[in-house]
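Notebook B, p. 112. Complex prediction, attempt 2.
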Amino acid sequence: MEGIKQKIENLRSEIRRHNHYYFVLDQPQISDQEYDQLMQQLIKLEEEYPELVTPNSPTQRVGGEAIDQFKKVEHQIPLLSLAKSFSEQELYDFDQRVQKIIGEKVKYVVELKIDGLSTSLLYEEGRLVQAATRGNGIIGEDITHNIRTIKSIPLNLDSQLDLEVRGEVFIPKDRFLKLNQWRKKEELGTFANPRNAAAGSVRQLDPKVAARRPLDIFIYDSTYIEGQQFKTHSERLDYLEELGFKINPARQVCSEIEEVIEYCQKWTTKREELNYEIDGIVIKVNQLSLREQLGATAKHPRWAMAYKFPAQQQETEVKGIEVTVGRTGALTPTAVLEPVLLDGSEVSRATLHNQDYIEEKDVRIGDRVIIEKSGDIIPQVVEVLVKERNGQQESYHLPQSCPICQGEISKVGAEHRCINNNCPSRTEEKIKHFAKRGAMNIEGLGESLVKKLLENGLIADLADLYYLHQKELVELERMGQKSSQNLLDAIEKSKDNSLARLLFGLGIHHVGSEVARNLAENFSDLDEIMEATKKELMAIDGVGPKIAQSIVTYFSQQESLEIIKKLRQAGVNLESRQAEQDDLLEEKKFVLTGKLADFTRSEAKGVITELGGKVTSSVSGQTDYLVVGDNPGSKYQQAQDLGVEILSEEEFKEIIED
Ligand code: IVH
């Protein structure tokens, strides 16, 4: 038995060594076939002697079953984010600030800023025991089952050390393109960019799925390594590399800020050559004792800085201009572009906002244009290359009638609007709005399902949702018994929503969630609101002449009355129930900090006020809850000091979705 045990251990360490050569150093020492043979030998022996299988054996990377949900993990040392700079001047300023505190010139380490997901890995006695997402920096999620599948991460170290390392999980560009090609073929929907693909992969419940995704990692930091004291960050990285971690080779120590700037300039163009996405450069003070001296603000360490590359621009061609019609009837022109890769995502559309914008920029069909992502999200046309015109380009004017329903268009300010309330595009957008979280919150009724229901003639307006039958739903593509029953349950549940949610959900122009709530609080039911005069409406907080007119107009239209009638008949609540009015959060005072993943600030605020809570900007003894998103500010510490209850985004969602 001892002999077998030894044989198994030898095989494991040989496989680990070759994993390191292959996945970390990118220098395979044996052929794939030879590697497979070693692996097969180990699998066979472990099958024969199951009692000798250890959790971190190379055969056990995809170990165990899928999990039900992610466990929360509290980071012992918070994962801070980095302050950002966008120009050379800001880097000089950073250097000056550092020198002022330290009193002399300091050395920096510069590294590539990998565009992926930060992860913390904990090792105990040399064994990987936990991997967690960054989460909000303080509380993350346990993703050990997925991270174990990344072959460049050692499951066992040669030394039996306790340590924590941090790194960025990513998907290489070439593997990402292949993954998307395959998903397209399988009709699975493609990922927008490698980062999203990596994020989706580490958040899988089933490690078998993650194991099929081409994830990789670069380790960029460590918070502690048992028994080791280092003078500098660069020495620590070298040591981690010796331990078998994958460290990015492009790191460099700089003695002058000018060298740092040169490095940033070099990689601004050279980044294209890399097989992974980077979104900037990280500059870190190298000497670790100086880091302590410099300390951190609530969000960022003072010893580091991210230099963000200028927004990438691309030249492309405007193939055409398409118009979409929103819920309120607004016509939005969009340039259809020859697809190009911009910051790692394929871009084939750019917003043109409205007719004035098109004229101001003089965008014509057939033009060569420069596009850029604004705020990293929606691509914009920043410049038209007028010199490249050959006379074939065509000017564009928004249509005289609605492109969807051919209805009449009216111009309000810079906006052209389809005034047909029954325009199919407006109807679709209205239903989507009705179902969304801040409104009637009908779970499972997303964009594509709304489209399908309309296309199949199962609904014609939002009130028809309450007249759907299971037998017609199951006929829809990808709709089984279970999902159709879930949908019907969610629709049924929404009948009991507050009047405020309904009013907001109706999508009356200018009636946001706060106005809807004020209306519901001041009238006893929908009938009273429908009968109210403009003057009576204007007596309500937040309702001016424009909103009052919009409400009066809405309830004077035949289509609206039809919808209300159907909602009433279906048993949808139209009463303002002061006492039970979603008073879940009645008078509760909330403060928000950090970036939430699923809500914008105003959405979160809308939901809270809709449920009777209040949102204030600073934490005090009166605050009931602090909702903590990504990168929380100093409010987090204040709330802790004052003993204010702290909610993660998940906990906040549990409260509001009760
Ligand atoms: S150091 C105190 N080094 O960028 C922060 N971060 O905004 C220490 N990142 O959350 C971070 N590459 O996910 C560091 N070479 C690198 C990095 C890197 C990517 C990410 C990381 C972090 C974010 C900071």
